[in-house]
Design brief:
Layout: H1 2-12, H2 14-19, H3 21-42, H4 50-62, H5 68-71, H6 78-98, E1 105-109, E2 115-121, E3 125-134, H7 138-147, E4 158-167, E5 171-178, E6 188-199, E7 202-209, E8 222-223, E9 225-236, E10 239-252, H8 259-263, H9 269-294, E11 296-300, E12 306-310
Parallel strand pairs: 6-8
Antiparallel strand pairs: 1-2, 2-3, 3-10, 4-5, 5-6, 6-7, 7-9, 9-10, 11-12
Helix pairs in contact: 1-4, 3-4
Subcellular location: Mitochondrion
GO cellular component, one term: mitochondrion
GO molecular function, one term: cholesterol transfer activity
Length: 311
Amino acid sequence: MLPATFKLCCGISHEHLRQVTGLKRTAVAVLGQNMTKLMFKESHCLFPDILHHIQKIVRKDIGTEQDSYLDSHWVSSSADLAYVKHGEATLQCAMGILQQLEGWKVEVHQENGISVQSTFLPKLGKVFRAEAVVDFPADQLHSHLFDKMEEMNDWNHVSHVEVLQRIGKDTLVTHEIAQSPGNLIDQRDFVSVHHSKRRGSTIYVVGTATYSDLMPPQKGLIRAETGLTCFVLKPLENDKKKTKFTWLLSTDLKVCSSSRAREKGWIPKPIISCAMSHTQINFINHLRRHLATSAVQPELQQDGVFHCTTV
């Protein structure tokens, strides 16, 4: 009944949308966003795939069955929408932390410009904030940190990175396995939702723990949780080829002091605190080396001839 009713509504405005081609994609995108909000709030439990059916009906009636613009504004089910909403909520949380200027304690400050601070927040626990300047444009840096996330294990010290699901252009569900330092503790793995958002010239990539049927807990791995991670990529005002890189990180490694937990990978909290700051420092150093060796971008000269320069 609902598909038929919605199809009737589409039919009423069908000719108007066909004639106003310049507004068609925008109108459908806005319609899609509002319908997904409504369905998620009111009926996603009863009709888990209803958003997918509505999307197909609208595309068919308006003649936009293949449109990448619409793909980034629609989600295929209420389950996918839940991931998107989770990512958006994490971004709002990260924005609030980034605006907090007081209460940060210096953990590390290196001569190469990398600094790490920390603070304690009631719901997240200890949050680390690393900052550095990276000699690379923000847009291309975003590509390495989000679009090419599965390649991260080629240059960063992680054993495995897999994208389990891509939802539109801005949301990913991933599975990551962290290396075990010196085989002293059991390996940890993470299932996370990542969400990317541009605000002005600044790009944000946030992540937090989630659950996915595609990757239930694995034997031999301790399922840890990312409370919050956020990359902030902001071009320098005086040099757009360089980026101020800020990284918020809060992780629950599932530490417990029981004797049974010790056998399964217990880690003393002071070691965790030290390890987290060094994890961020090592990541930035690996990222810098990776970009220095692999990033060559084309540059257009005034005479219109392309040549390549390292960034």
